[in-house]
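Reopening this ticket.

The earlier resolution said the output was attached, but the attachment link was broken on my side. Pasting everything inline this time so it's all in one place.
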Amino acid sequence: MEIMEPNSAVPKFKYLDHTSEAKFQAYGKTLEEAFANAVLAMYNMLTDIKKVKQVVRKEIEIKAPKLDTLLFDFLDQFVILLDTEGLIVSYVDSLTITKKFEMYTLKAIVKGDSYKAYDAHGSLKAITYNDMIIKEQKNGLWIVQVVVDI
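Inline output:
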């Protein structure tokens, strides 16, 4: 299943077959857009995020020495937010990634609503490094691939 952005030939994300967990690829014209779409892909596994209202606003800041660690820690924050606050994110308002002195910093503002207000199924147990990919293709499109333990 691919989720397309209106008026775009590039999907936001698609789900891939995996034997025991959930696997997806998220895409973006920038690295930041691919990371943002990874958040949406992860939550869309639980419920149709197009129906989730944007009533709760959260600011996220993550620092890591490598991009794969940055992605892991970033997505892990959302597993924690789901577990502790019941938050389902449906919109990434802003996301920036900067690199300074061999350290990446990610800052994001996301919006969503309570898990209990929607027909949601399943859970997100953990992010994994298994099959994780972060790469820029020759055409400039970024791909982020993630396996989530559900």
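Reporter confirms the inline version is readable. Confidence is low (pLDDT under 50) at residues 1-7. Helices lie at 31-44, 67-85.
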